[in-house]
Design brief:
single chain, mainly alpha, two-stranded antiparallel sheet, 3 helices, about 70% helix, elongated
């Protein structure tokens, strides 16, 4: 049992949080909206994963870097953290692109 992959996802999420905090891109710009977006994205992708697992589109891969803890058949613990990370990164990138576009517009004026 290894916690390497889970620790990596959590560490990357923490680093993304530092970027978000520094430039107020997503969760630190509007926490309520960010929480709603994260929750809806999490539910969407969790359902997506469960349906894909049920119909056999994909299954759990074996890796020595994973904990081996399954919350459902072929649904590793790490997947939940990865889904949150994926949604968070998307929100931060959306905020970043918005910031860059606003800066670009202010330079043009």
């Amino acid at each position: 049992m290894s916690w390497l992959y889970l620790a990596s996802v959590i560490g990357a999420g923490f680093c993304m949080g530092l970027v978000d905090h520094r430039w107020r891109l997503f969760a630190f710009r509007g926490p309520r909206v960010a929480l709603a977006v994260l929750a809806s994205g999490f539910v969407f992708f969790l359902v997506w994963d469960l349906v894909a697992l049920e119909i056999g589109v994909y299954g759990r891969g074996e890796s020595p870097a994973m904990t081996g803890i399954e919350l459902a058949p072929h649904l590793p613990l790490e997947e939940l953290f990865f889904i949150v990370f994926l949604c968070y990164v998307t929100g931060v990138l959306h905020g970043l692109f918005g910031l860059l576009l606003r800066q670009r517009e202010s330079v043009r004026r």
